[in-house]
Amino acid sequence: xxxVLWPTALLLCFSFSALAAPASCExxxxxxxxxxxxxxxxxDNFSLTIVANDQAEQSGAQVVGHCANDTFKILYQKGDxxxxxxxxxxxxxxP
Length: 95
Fold this sequence. Notes:
Largest sheet: 4 strands, mixed
Structural class: alpha+beta
Shape: flat
Helix content: 25-40%
Number of strands: 4
Radius of gyration: 17 Å
């Protein structure tokens, strides 16, 4: 009985951490966004985007943070903020 409980408990722990990763990325993104705004940058003149590590090499964007055990990067891009509601899109790699 105990031999079955440990693998099940470990599996549950890993599944909860995987579900919490996007939330932690949004929290890190929000913290970075507030720091940029407090440094005097107009919120309409930049955008932050959460992308997978392999998509972080976008032209015109600068990596300003990472999250979810360094599996995602947060990119800063100058210019018009094309995201009207303030939320970044999370892009995940195709299988």
